[in-house]
Design brief:
The chain is of the alpha+beta class. It has four domains: 189 residues, Sandwich (Jelly Rolls); 169 residues, no CATH class; 249 residues; 59 residues, no CATH class. 38% of the residues lie in helices and 22% in strands. Strand 5 and strand 6 form a beta hairpin. The chain is elongated and about 125 Å long. About 4% of the residues have low confidence. InterPro entries: Oxoglu/Fe-dep_dioxygenase_dom (IPR005123), Pro_4_hyd_alph_FE2OG_OXY (IPR044862). It comes from Candidatus Competibacter denitrificans Run_A_D11. This is Fe2OG dioxygenase domain-containing protein.
């Protein structure tokens, strides 16, 4: 079966003749010397007084009709001076003219030798024009006309050229006197000069002649047959995209033959056959209702590599240069494909940024298979890293897609492209105050359909408790936009595919509550139950925060049994770590005070009895809910909240914390009576054993330890990690250096500080304890 990518490439590859029915450009020149019989030298840029002098010696320009030559200012109003009366010179003029002719004939697709023969000097003053007409053959071998607009101030006077169903409109006026603009077109093309609105337009008209004038003269390239086939292919492709069973690519990319830098990438700078293909595709795309862009196609690949053979690699070790050909690619491990540097056919830049593409979108699919990379680098093996390679392919390409599929194509750029676009679209719709029948809303509705269809396939997190994210997730951004659009259909689809299946974090709660308020009560209740039960085991605090927000919103809390849903949170509260969880990846993140505060805050409002059950659970697992790190700080925060102070669960937690604090306050608090200090150390090496004996000696205050750096570092780390009551410095006199330790009463000072804090905390908790 022939695919669109294969069929389109096949027909485009038949278009090999470069050129178009017209060519135009701008070139820098050294101002030529210009003289006219009867006047003398003419200054450039043209001065108003000399423009009047030229008109005074000129004749009204005629036009041809059949075999007749007529003068009719209703058809042509301009002034002409015969070539014989015009003298052009200057050291650089001939080379400038040759350069212009070369650009012109290349643009027209003519490869034979061509000469330019001056025909007339034309002066257009305000109101001058020339209606649409064709040039007659003025000399043997003439096939085209070249016009060069000399530096002269004027407005209006655009040149309009038509060939078949195509048209070009050119403004050849230049404000810089060191530049001239030119245009060339085949003699059978209809063309006209639009009225001059001010100033004077001074133009040299040349006949382009084929020398020798033998055989058939060049004609404008015509790709009507190919164009018709292209139009049908594109229309069939567009129609197929509307079918649910269609598997054709969303866009088509045809790599061009010539190399172009990003700075020079534009439709009017395309060369040879590339220009011819573009000239055929532009009207075909328009007829088939497709968008056509020019872009830079980039493919980057990398992966492992290896030397060609062991012995040759050994011989190269002494060489300063590196022969990249000595490496072989093992496999392509990473591959990225992007489109960038977008240009539109009208010459404007398209703000699409960097855009990914699929291999099946290339025309033909194997377009890059036989190309050599633009860059290729090999990295020799270092340490544990094996040899590797990187290579990059870059080509300009023509990119097509059906206009009706623009949003699907945009979605191919990923969320980095679609989310900002949707945000802008939503803001415009909200600002307009329009209803859901507005074009902006319908466009947003269609775009979100594509986005949800390809939403990142994130596996729901199955690990233990995690903290809230510091930045808004893509889920939060998307749901916020759907809420602003009031798109309940998409809200339902989105929640079903994200939070309800475990792709959830606390930063989504504000958007989730707003979304639930927009849905029917039964559906919102089902979603809330599903979200909490699915996520409570790993994110109980986030689920509790969600319930608090729902409880604070009457439109939700008055219609849902939040207490029944809250049971899932209590059932999933963390317990003490299991003995089998011996590896770091198996352990839960530590429970923090805010976790307890959030849960109590939610359950106190939803079901006080359930809150008490949660407190009983926490008190039963002291390894997870440490008093000093978690429960006491949480109880202190709860004691400051009026709505929580009188709740049984808050009082129950305060009582347990007071019991803990009173037990420690009752402990004897006396400064050390001698120099004995706690000598229990985790390390049992000989050096630490010597340190331990010093700590246990009630008579010894100072200790010196002479050892090499590594051993001293180990002893210092032991002092720090065991919080030994020691001050230490390094005496750097002599070798090796000496560690000098003196005992202090840091442990006692810490207990004094702890006692002061315990007394303050206990006083605060008594206010709510029973």
């Amino acid at each position: 079966m022939v695919t669109i990518t294969t069929a389109l490439a096949k027909i485009l590859q038949k278009i090999q003749r470069p050129g178009d029915f017209y060519a135009s450009g701008v070139t820098e020149i050294f101002t030529p010397s210009l003289a006219v019989t009867g006047i003398g030298p003419i200054a450039l840029p043209l001065l108003p007084v000399q423009a009047e002098q030229l008109i005074a010696v000129a004749e009204q320009a005629p036009y041809g009709r059949g075999e007749e030559t007529l003068v009719d200012t209703q058809v042509r109003r301009t002034w002409q001076i015969e070539a014989a009366r015009v003298e052009l010179g200057g050291r650089h003029w001939q080379s400038a003219l040759d350069r212009i002719v070369k650009q012109a004939v290349t643009g027209l697709g003519v490869s034979q030798p061509v000469t330019a023969e001056l025909y007339k000097l034309l002066v257009y003053d305000a109101g001058s024009f020339f209606v649409s007409h064709r040039d007659t053959e003025k000399a043997p071998g003439m096939f085209a006309t070249l016009i060069i607009v000399l530096p002269s101030p004027y407005t209006g006077g655009e040149l309009r050229i038509q060939h078949g169903d195509r048209e070009a409109r050119l403004d050849l006026q230049r404000t810089d006197p060191s530049e001239v603009a030119f245009a060339a077109f085949y003699a059978d093309c209809l063309h006209e000069i639009l009225p001059i609105t001010s100033g004077w337009r001074l133009t040299l008209v040349y006949n382009l002649l084929l020398r020798p004038a033998k055989g058939r003269l060049p004609e404008p390239p015509s790709y009507q047959a190919e164009q018709a086939i292209i139009v049908k292919l594109l229309r069939d492709w567009t129609a197929a995209k509307n079918s649910p069973d269609d598997d054709s690519p969303e866009k088509l990319i045809y790599p061009l033959q010539h190399a172009y830098t990003p700075a020079a990438l534009a439709f009017d700078t395309l060369k040879g056959a590339d220009a011819a293909i573009a000239s055929a595709l532009i009207p075909a795309a328009e007829q088939a209702d497709c968008d056509l862009h020019l872009a830079l196609v980039s493919i980057k690949e990398s992966g492992p590599a290896e030397y060609e053979d062991y012995y040759s690699s050994r011989r190269r070790r002494g060489r300063s240069d590196h022969d990249e050909e000595s490496f072989e690619i093992v496999e392509v491990a990473d591959r990225t494909t992007t489109l960038s540097e977008w240009q539109r056919a009208d010459g404007k830049t398209a703000e699409l940024g960097e855009f990914p593409f699929e291999d099946n979108e290339l025309c033909p699919p194997d377009a890059f298979d036989k190309l050599k990379p633009d860059e290729q680098h090999f990295q020799e093996a270092t340490g544990n890293e094996g040899a590797s390679f990187e290579r990059t392919y870059r080509r300009a390409g023509l990119v097509l897609w059906p206009r009706t599929r623009w949003l699907a194509v945009l979605n191919g750029g990923g969320l980095s492209v679609t989310l900002p676009y949707l945000e802008e679209l939503t803001q415009d719709w909200v600002a307009s105050g329009a209803d859901c029948d507005a074009a902006q809303w319908r466009e947003a509705h269609e775009l979100t359909s594509h986005m949800l269809r390809t939403w990142p396939n994130i596996e729901p997190y199955e690990g233990p408790y995690i903290e809230q994210r510091s930045t808004a997730s893509i889920e939060t951004r998307m749901l916020t936009l759907l809420n602003q659009l009031r798109d309940s259909e998409r809200i339902t689809n989105f929640i079903s595919e994200t939070a309800a299946v475990g792709i959830y974090s606390e930063d989504q709660n504000v958007a989730l509550v707003e979304a639930l308020a927009l849905l029917p009560t039964a559906q919102a209740a089902d979603f809330l139950q599903c979200i909490v039960s699915r996520n409570a085991a790993r994110a109980p605090a986030a689920c509790s925060d969600l319930l608090v927000r729902c409880a604070a919103l009457p439109v939700i809390s008055s219609k849902m049994d939040l207490a029944a849903i809250a049971h899932s949170v209590v059932d999933a509260l963390p317990q003490d770590p299991a003995v089998s969880q011996q590896y770091s990846w198996q352990r839960r993140s530590p429970v923090r005070r805010d976790f307890v505060v959030t849960i109590l805050h939610a359950l106190n409002r939803i079901d006080p009895a359930l809150a008490q059950r949660a407190v009983v659970h926490m008190l039963a697992y002291p390894k997870t809910y440490d008093f000093d790190r978690v429960l006491v700080p949480a109880a202190l925060i709860v004691s400051q909240t009026a709505a929580d102070q009188e709740q049984p669960a808050s009082q129950q937690l305060a009582n347990a914390c007071l019991t803990h604090l009173h037990a420690r306050i009752a402990e004897d608090l006396q400064p050390p009576a001698n120099w004995y200090r706690d000598s229990t150390l985790r390390c049992q090496c000989g050096y630490c054993a010597e340190l331990s004996r010093f700590l246990a000696d009630p008579e010894q205050q100072m200790w010196t330890f002479k050892a090499i750096g590594g051993i001293r570092d180990h002893v210092e780390e032991s002092i720090r990690s065991n919080q030994c009551d020691l001050d230490y410095i390094t005496d750097k006199r002599g070798r090796p250096f000496t560690l000098v330790c003196s005992k202090n009463q840091a442990s006692y000072d810490r207990r004094v500080q702890q006692r002061q804090k315990d007394l303050k905390d206990a006083a605060q908790l008594k206010a709510i304890a029973i």
